[in-house]
Amino acid sequence: MNTPTLSVRVARKTTEAQGICRFELVAADGQALPAFTAGAHVDVHLPGGLVRQYSLSNDPRETQRYVLGVLRDAASRGGSQAMHESVNEGDTLQISTPKNHFPLAADARQHLLFAGGIGITPILSMAQHLGASGASFALHYCTRSAPSTAFLGELAASAFAPHVSHHFDDGTPAQKLDLAAALGAPRDGVHLYVCGPKGFMDWVLATARQGGWPEAQLHYEFFAGEAVNLADAGSFDVKIASTGQVIQIPKDKTVVQALSLCGIEIQTSCEQGVCGTCLTRVLEGQPEHKDMYLTEEEQALNDQFTPCCSRSRSPVLVLDL
Question: What residues contact 145, with CB distance under 8 A and at least 6 apart?
Fold first, then answer.
């Protein structure tokens, strides 16, 4: 199952901060790129057949370029390494059209933005949109140090710089993030957005929940999930609704892997339950959700799951394939 892609050229590749490269992509044919909204990402097809998601960091009003910020991650499964080592200025890449699983709430009267490290990439686009529209917002940006902070100069030079607070791990105690104070009590119309390393996001979200913030006002996007661990997995069957074919999913294979061996391909990207690319409808049975894409409420409905990592609590799952 393939989806159409766009041909883009890497117009510029620069060092944005320690360990972080900035990529500016333009349409290979010189035309305007498809419009996007703040919080959106694109799937980038990389050398070696990898497909990875990267957030669009620039102002959504721009139509001639997409800006990506990519951290070289020591725990990378190959994506960030390929971007840093194999993608160069002048190269042509295939990307998807922009997708947005992390949009700004249209009915919010105030926005609280929290970015940890490279999690600034979607948050920066949000800040640019909110600043241009005159919306009420505050951005708290936590990084190890100033040299490791992506888009530091861009933020300082922006018209919305007064809305931005930097918090450096190696800085003075006075400038460290007081999360409880930054959050305050939950208020109607105030929405929270967070992106960054899992530990940072867990901290922000747990603090908000403990403070009584309702789930509907919490918005987040994980960059990576936990690696799929099949050590304690059990086997089960998957039934293909359109054909009636029943396929056993052994304990050492994911659903995607087992179906692929039988000639049934499900499009994947992150393979960690983060991006939602492989999301599949469940017609019967109870999934064992292991993703970080669906909300708890969506998981409780048991009408869809991510076959790249999730499994089954029931002996059979009937899939809408």
Answer: 18, 168, 169, 170, 171
Report if residue 228 sits inside a domain. Answer: no
Query: Pick from 194, 222, 250: which residue ends a domain?
Result: 222
Instruction: Give kind and range of the element (H or E) at residue 255.
Output: helix 255-261
Whether 120 and 200 share a structural domain: yes
As for how many domains the chain has, the answer is: 3
What secondary structure does DSSP assign to 131-159, as a single string?
HHHT--EEEEEEES-GGG-TTHHHHHHST
Strands (E), 173-226: 190-196, 218-222
Tell me if 238 sits within 8 A of 291, measured CB to CB: no
Phi, psi of 183 (to 5 degrees): -75, -50
pLDDT tens sequence across 53-84: 899 999 999 999 999 999 987 666 678 888 99
Say if residue 64 is in the same domain as residue 152: no
pTM of the model: 0.79
Question: What type of residue sits at position 207?
Answer: T
- Please give the Cα distance from 286 to 284 (Å, whole number): 7
315 lies in which domain range?
236-319
Dihedral of CA 53/58/63/68: which sign?
Answer: negative
Model confidence pLDDT, tens digit, residues 305-318: 999 999 999 999 99
Residues 121 and 88 reside in one and the same domain: no
* pLDDT tens readout for residues 46-55: 988 888 889 9
CATH number at residue 115: 3.40.50.80
Domain boundary among 222, 252, 274: 222
End-to-end CA distance of the chain: 11
Spell out the residues 6+ positions from residue 119 whose beta carbon is closer than 8 angstroms to its own: 194, 195, 196, 197, 200, 201, 223
Mention every residue, 6+ apart, whose C-beta is less than 8 A from residue 2.
267
